[in-house]
Fold:
Amino acid sequence: MIDLRSDTVTLPTPEMREVMARAEVGDDGYGEDPSINRLQELAAEMLGKEDALFLPSGTMANLAAIMSHTRPSDSIILGENAHSWMFESGGPAAVAGVLPVTVGRGGTFTWQEVEENARGGNVHLPPTTLVMMENTHNGGGGIIFPQRDVIEIAEKAKFWKFKTHIDGARIFNAAVATGRPAGELAAPVDSVSFCLSKGLGCPVGSLVCGSREFIQKARRYRELLGGGMRQAGVLAAAGIYALEHNIARLQEDHDHARLLAEKLSDLNGLSLDLAKVQTNMVFVGVMKAGRTAFEYAARLKERGVLVNAMGKAKFRAVTHLGISRPDILQAAEIFAAALEG
Structure:
């Protein structure tokens, strides 16, 4: 199978497995796992923050960040189809007790849109206390949040005493695509999370980075959410390897996504916006009469390609370290064949 469903399907390479097998471990509940400590130090350094915390998942990292920045009955502002709003099981509302308010179109937004939707100054309104940006934005097709808007939002949020957070699950994709270090992308905001188990190729894990005071709060909420771990240095070792070896190679994924998009753009029955293929995702509309994205995905699976249908009208293909250029060329032929009949 050529698996284009997500970059979460990546498998650890033999080199990563080797460092995992040799990892030094200890009890992280006591702060004594040297591999976890090293990973957290490396993450904080790379993201330009004072401290960092290792968590089992990006969902937990975002939720711990939300809980650290807000109080129950606050409201938070996110982009349209933000991951924390769409794909995190309602945790912000159910667990953090906050009201998510979505703004903008396609995932990105401006300070003006924040200002127009912020709440407060009235006892009847849930006060806005946090603005969350997603970079890259999954639901928007892997697009990059414009840095000028990140800077303006963060600067003006400080005046209104709003906290700012970047869901940077794929922030290193944004860094490679823009040529800006991840620390520069994250510099304006109070906190940032990122995933190890997507394009970086680790089996599990995410980190959240911010001030020491913020991380102290996040550590408490990680424990509350059941995310405290013991000898998890075997997982942290994979993260260290990924941060040291797997960032630059993300450009290959971007190149493969662009190649696939160009091939698919030539096919009658499919539609896509090449301008939105900025990193490792390709969102494609199914235009062929009488065929849904679900039916088309089933045809592709029969022929050896896996994609995720995103509703009846479109599907998503994601490139990653398990996909080669020959895979893309073969997949393009299968996409064409599956449109026939």
